[in-house]
Q: What sequence folds into this?
């Protein structure tokens, strides 16, 4: 299938994109022609695109107050992509869709029926779903003949056993969809695939993957399948994150409501003013906190590593032991001091960290006598989406 596949990975405040060229396949069957990110949607949008070697291909800024900003910026991206296509042209666009609910557990071609399902799922994740779906609608209007594929961030966790999905709530609520779904599934799928390629014996064992970015979660893998994860019904659950609270006693919400806080105020606080930002009062960016000498910054980092370690302990119990720990995503890949702090809290498991390898963010950062293999793997959600999209395109061609 010569041609190109455009991948759109939309988050709550930014959109990552990647253009894969199938004209010149590498060992994975595709080559990255360009990748980048659009940030500043609500202020001054900025698009930066680079080739796979890091050379800048496009650096575009827009002023604040741009009318119909989403459609305008996306159309610019589509025109940019058109100018870098392989000889077969643009075959399809693959999207990361944060929530697939209980039914959507595999990549699917976008249809009117699927879009209706996704709209109905929006209340499950009001922060991410509107931004996930918006590019699909823009493309459907601008290029209705173009194949679009939805890849669901929750799908990887459909292997969770029932006991790992349940909440202690009335049974009819579980039947209505109130259950643990799990997120960051495309990232975990990529890491599981890399483990199977590079460390097949470990991949068959008991592994905890720590996806640590502005959103953060842990996943327990057994033979490459998700059996437990820290995010649950929503992306608020589990670890303390950049601006999200993580696990919280629901009594706190009842108390705040009784004190006169509105639903909108509570929601804004939980999603945007809590986590590392809320605890430190300084920033939700771990780099800023690590560079700060303020006591509140140190306390926020301590809480972050404490929660990672305690949640990891729970996943060790779910797995019945541990063979490997993998750090991934922005913080997991680029913050050696934080990795060291987490591993120090988990030293009771027999983890021994190689300080030099950790400082260099090497692939393996544990010592030879460590009871647990500790790895750093750079994640690539866009590559996973591209592979799934190509499979659907190839199926149509066949």
A:
């Amino acid at each position: 299938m010569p041609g190109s596949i455009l991948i759109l990975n939309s988050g709550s405040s930014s959109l990552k994109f990647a253009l894969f060229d199938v004209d010149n396949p590498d060992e994975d069957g595709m080559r990255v022609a360009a990748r980048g990110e659009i940030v500043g949607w609500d202020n001054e949008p900025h698009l930066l695109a680079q080739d796979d070697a890091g050379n800048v291909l496009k650096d575009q800024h827009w002023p604040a107050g741009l009318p119909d900003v989403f459609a305008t910026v996306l159309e610019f991206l589509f025109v940019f992509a058109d100018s870098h296509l392989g000889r077969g042209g643009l075959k399809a666009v693959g999207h990361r869709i944060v929530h697939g609910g209980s039914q959507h557990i595999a990549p699917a071609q976008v249809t009117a029926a699927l879009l209706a399902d996704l709209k109905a799922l929006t209340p499950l994740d009001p922060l991410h779903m509107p931004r996930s779906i918006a590019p699909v609608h823009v493309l459907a209007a601008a290029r209705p003949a173009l194949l679009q594929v939805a890849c669901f961030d929750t799908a990887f966790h459909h292997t969770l056993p029932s006991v790992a999905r349940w909440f202690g709530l009335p049974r009819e609520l579980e039947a209505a969809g109130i259950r643990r779904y799990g997120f960051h599934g495309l990232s975990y799928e990529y890491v599981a695939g890399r483990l199977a390629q590079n460390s097949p014996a470990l991949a068959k064992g008991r592994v905890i993957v720590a996806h640590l970015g502005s959103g953060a979660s842990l996943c327990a893998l057994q033979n490459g399948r998700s059996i437990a994860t820290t995010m649950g019904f929503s992306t608020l659950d589990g670890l303390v994150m950049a601006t999200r609270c993580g696990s919280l006693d629901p009594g706190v919400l009842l108390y705040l409501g009784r004190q006169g806080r509105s639903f909108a105020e509570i929601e804004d606080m939980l999603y945007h003013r809590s986590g590392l930002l809320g605890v430190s009062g300084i920033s939700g960016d771990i780099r800023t906190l690590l560079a700060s000498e303020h006591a509140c910054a140190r306390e926020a980092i301590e809480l972050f590593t404490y929660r990672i370690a305690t949640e990891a302990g729970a996943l060790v119990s779910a797995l019945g032991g541990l063979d490997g720990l993998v750090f991934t995503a922005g913080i997991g890949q680029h913050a050696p001091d934080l990795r060291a702090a987490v591993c120090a809290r988990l030293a009771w498991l027999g983890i021994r960290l190689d300080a030099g390898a950790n400082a260099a963010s090497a692939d393996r950062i544990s010592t030879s006598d460590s009871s647990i293999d500790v790895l750093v793997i750079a994640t690539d959600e866009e590559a996973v989406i591209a592979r799934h999209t190509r499979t659907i395109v190839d199926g149509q061609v066949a």
Remarks:
- The CA atoms of residues 3 and 88 lie 4 Å apart.
